[in-house]
Amino acid sequence: MIGLIILGILLLLILLVLYTRVGVLIRFGDATTFTLTVGRFKKSLAKKDASQKKGASQKKGAAKKPEKKKKAASSKKTKPKKRLPRPTWEEVLSLIDAVRAALAKALLKTRGRIRIAPLDVYVCFGGEDKAKTAQSYGIANAVCAAVMPKVRALLSIPRNDIRFSLDFENDETTASGVVGISILPIHALIIAFALAKPLLRWFLAFRKAHKDNAQPDAAEQKSVTNDAAA
Length: 230
What we know:
Blueprint: H1 2-18, E1 22-28, E2 32-38, E3 41-47, H2 50-63, E4 82-83, H3 89-109, E5 115-125, H4 130-154, E6 160-166, E7 174-183, H5 185-209, E8 215-216, H6 218-229
Parallel strand pairs: 5-6
Antiparallel strand pairs: 1-2, 1-7, 2-3, 4-8, 5-7
Helix pairs in contact: 3-5
């Protein structure tokens, strides 16, 4: 009887975790802040500005003392580990297609469960090259007009406000806004399992195709060469 009660409590806790909505609210612009939400609990995190990071890194570098290099000597010869080559552009495209198809199927199963709210983004395009800036502005509008209807068909987006503008007097492009994303852990697992199969299938095919072309790791090869020379 006690065992059944413990099992029931564990199942209740698992269901509670799987069906507790988690999310993140991102505010960006002059400063970037993150607000993590788990159910009704919220935790705000602030991201340091670039100037603050630079000053902190300089202080850290000045305070850090140079470390002595340690010489590693090994008397035993080890076989170099083989490292797979970089994937070709065609293989990268095939991976993108596989992931895109699997992700679309997973989002169809979780349609309306992944929520993006609010979605308020403002981008002001600027730059020294006016022609390139105007081209980037046109591409952004075209991509947004083509992608957003498909995204709204798969995700729950009650309201979206994405605006673009041009400012030729500004030397750089600036962006600001608020974006919130929330999901149930059960739906995150569904998406993860849907992506795991095509990723594993692609990796096995990639490894099989490049089995004979695998190169030894550079560090291991150098270590073996040094041991042989000694």
